[in-house]
Structures are given as structure tokens and as C-alpha cells.
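Example (one chain per record):
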Amino acid sequence: MFQSRDECVYSLEIYDDGSVDIVISDVSLSVTVGLGVDASSRPMLDTKSCDSSIDDVSLKFQGLNEMIWNLFSDILGDLLKDVLQMKVGLGGRFVLDYGLIAPVTFTADYMESLHKGEVYWITDKKESPLTPERIPPWGDYSRMLYLWVTEYTANTMAQVAQDHGYLQYNLTAKDLPAAIRSILHTSCTGRCIGTLVPKIRAKYPNSLVEIHVKSSSTPLANILDSGLNLGLLGDLVLYARTPDGNLAYLLTLAMKLSLTGTAYIHHEKVKGKITDHNFKVSLKDSTVGYVGVSGFYLVLSLALKHFVIPSFNTVAEKGFELPITDDVMFMNSKITFHEGVLIVSTDVQYLTEAEKYFLVALRGDFLFGLNALMYEVYTPNFEKRQQITELFPAFLY
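Predicted structure:
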């Protein structure tokens, strides 16, 4: 480990038979170096993490195609800055900090590293008052790599989302499939909120109901032996959009929602899916007089089934990347749920350069991976061209 000065200059080789000078300015940098193996099973040193405050990263490429590379130097500099600061963006609003919180432990049988795993709001890095859970004892060592993720990560994300007003949404008929949008009408001949709750129809006929949803307290995430659970409390504020375009307040429902889900590994990402849900509502306030809540259950069930749950699953399907490098690929992966912790167990395969390009495409950046692959295929470097064409003949021809 070393501490940097105010400015660090590095020179790295790139494949294009050139080099790049990287200047990191106004930085206090702590780098942890790990011991690993290369593709030939020889010992190698590799930079595993940095904890830093960086003001600027600039790159200057030199070589045959330096003019092209330097066109992207600002973009690449910003990307490198994010990597050095050991943070991962989540959804554009959140940042996951998985920097080391203790020195890496090396023994004759294993290597162990402890990471922070705290989520911050992207513009407000405030330490959470929550306390991380202890990692439970573990007896299965049949895989090469184990990653533990505790409830702390999900709950710090829930906390900052609540603190910054992120957990709110205005649900209108446009959010529902066309076939069931009439459920939010106050006047209809079939089933709609007007026939289910007649007092709303009597006061605001020929109107459309909007449901303004807002979390009333921080959601609570739990990892159980059976899977994942997320508990939410919120207020559903109902308004009537009248024919003249005005918005009239109707009533407020208090809602308790419980979501049950599972998680899985796909291309080195942890992804999830909601598998079940249940909810309860109670009347909190009303301008149309007392109304029973039973009439709202059909409306809310349809909204959950056709909008809320699919929206959660869209986010969960994107998943989050695990803190690994592009040099490895997971194999024989599985997720185990234990009280308070999710455990990723996997074997690891080290990749050749050709395999890395192909994996980029599989991980989602297909065009970049394909272009890189085609560049390698048509490069004058016969050895690398032969390596790729033998590895992916069906893909290339």
C-alpha cells in the first residue's frame, strides 16, 4: 500500500502498440495491491482497490492511433476517476461504496477482504447510523469464491431514498394497460372506482382518479432463509381529475405493502424478481365522508399487478455488478439465502483477451464488444486473429 503525493503520473501499455500517460491531480490516494495469477498461472501483482479523493484525471495517448484515442481522453479520464474512487453508480441517484474497511487477510488456505457496502445519495455522502450485521459462520468451501452481501447495503439504500424524497410517484390511468384504464373512472357501466366507491362518483362524476403515492417511513429489507422481503409503509392520496382539468382532493389511505422476492446471478450481476406480495389499507382522511376500504382493493390489486410489480422487476432485472474485474467470468454460480445475508458462491475462470471481448458483448455492451472483436479478427496480428477465430468460429462466419 502507498500514499500518493498531490500529483501522480503513470504510463500504461495499451493493445494498440502505444502508451498512455495518466496524470492524477490533487489526490490523496491509498492503493491496495493483491497477489494473484496470470493466464499462465504465474504470480502477479494487481491493484485491487483505492480509497481516494481525486480532483482531476487526464490522459494523453501516444502511438499509431493517438489522435483517435485522444478524442476520448476526457471521457476515459472521468471513467478512470470513478474506478479509482471505488464507487459504483446505481440508477443515476445512488452510489455504492465498496471500499475496503480493513486490511486483506492472507492465510495458507484463503484470502479474505471486508468491504463497506454502504449506499449514498450521489450528491450527499452522509454516513448512515445503521450498523452492519456480522457475517455468520460458513462451512461450505466447495467453490473458489464467496461473496457475502448483508441487509445493511439494501437498508442504507432505502434510507437515503427515503431521506431524499425518492420514494414517491403519481399513478394515473396512462400508467395502466389500455384494457384496464377504466378502473380509475368515476363514471362507468361496469367496474370502476366510481361503482366500487359510490361516494366518489356522486361528488365527482365523469372524472379520472389519480393516486399520489409517497413512502411514509423508511422501507425495511430482510434477507430470510426463504428469500428476500421488503416492507413498505406509505400514503395513497387520491385526487379526482375533473372534466375541466382541475385536481380535487378526495381522501388518503394508509398502506402497508410486503414484497417477497428472490435473486440470481447473470453475467456477474446480481439480479432479482418479485415473486409475491400482499397489502393492507386503512382510511386516514376523507373529504367525501366515511368510506369502507374494501372497494379500493380491486383498484389497488390491479395497479400492483400491472404497474408497481413490473416496475420493481424492471429495476431488479438490471441488477448490480459485483466488484470483480473484466479478467474473470463466473461459473457454477449459485445464491444462498441465510438469515441477514445473501451469499454468492461461484467458481472463477480467468479469461484470455479474445474471451474478454466476447464477454463484453454478453454483459450488455454488445456493439462495443462486437467492434472490438472484429478489430482483433482483421488485425495483422496473426496469432491473435487465429486465437479468436478458433474460439468463436460460428459467431464470426
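Caption: The longest strand covers residues 18-37.
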